[in-house]
Amino acid sequence: MIYVVLIFLFFLLFVCEYKSRQKVLYTFWIGTFLFLALFAFRGDNVGGDTSEYCIYYEGKTSTTYGSLKLNDDIEIGFRWICMALQKISLSHFWFLFSTSLISLVPFVLLLKKYSSLPNLSYLYISCSFTMIVCLETHIRQNIATAFIMMALYLLLKAQNKKNIIISAVLIVAGILTHTSIYLIFPLLLLIYFVKLTKKASYILVIGSCLVTLIFTDFFSQMFTGLMMLISPYETFSNLTRYMDSDKYGLSGKAGQFISFFPTALWALINIYYASKDELNNMFMKCLVVGTSVTIMASSFGMSFRMMYALVLLSYCYIPMAYRKNTKAMLINFIPILMLTYRFIMYTKSPAQINTDTHWLPYMFIFE
To answer: Quick one: DSSP state of residue 61?
Structure first.
């Protein structure tokens, strides 16, 4: 129920900031508090791996991640973060609170600087079951993504020597915290330097949908082959061990167009209303590439986790056309309504998907 209430509150905040630019700062901070609170104050049983992470953080032996004290195979960057946080407290509350802030504050900073309608971004995320589960469950990857987002924030702010050095350190920290950054960082570099046109963007998104529906097995084999190629390397072991697991992506849904249609539609609407300059900002390019690759890899279990950073970055920017064009905004709400409907249906029958995600019932840490 808490999720549905938050969707409603984010919608109200969005309406306020849409009607009055003067209210944007106030609505932003209210929305930010609600957004951070959902994850920072969640119970230690909310999220697929949350309880295991809490056990690991305490220094006990987790069935999933082993033991922090025994220097197991978890990425060294995450172990260092845990050991640093332990200096303050060993409580589950402190672990979830601190890691949530570390994970989400860089996103909030980017949102504040680049989004004209920040609560619309919060609304998109709160309507997306996949995003909510990722933010509740994938603590290591969330922190690693946050390091990359902070590096991007500094580089976009000013490319001076100080920011370049700090960004380089943050990128290394991200790589050391979760192996997915090995795959995301080169893609981000490519996105940064490559220009996109509207025609090319349409082809990427629409083409990925059509090609995926026709060649589902081909893409499944291609991405599985990629994981097999890197599997002998110990560095990627934490990524490749999940490659046959359906619960870590959109596996088995590629033939069901409804699975990725809302996301594809949202990308296409944003492409249509974005100006030429907007289309080539970092966030819009992340939207186009992240959406396209996620769709093409949707028959592969790790697809969304591989592209998660790009998808999250894409929420940092909303085309200015929505500020000036009411029709554009109404059209933009079509995929939101589709996602909301699917989300509410999940809350009414959670048993089918709750076994691995543990997103319901939502409980606060102090309950």
So the answer is: E
